[in-house]
Amino acid sequence: MNFLKNLFIFILFCFSLTSTSQTFSSSNGNDFWSNLRYGGSLGLGFGDDYFTGSLAPSAIYPFNEYFSTGVGLNLTYVNDDHYKAFVYGGSVLGILTPFQQLQFSAEFEQLRVNRQLKTFDETLEENYWYPALFLGGGYVVGNVTIGVRYDILYKEDKSIYGSAFMPFVRVYF
Question: Per UniProt, which keywords does this protein have (predicted)?
Answer without folding.
Answer: Signal
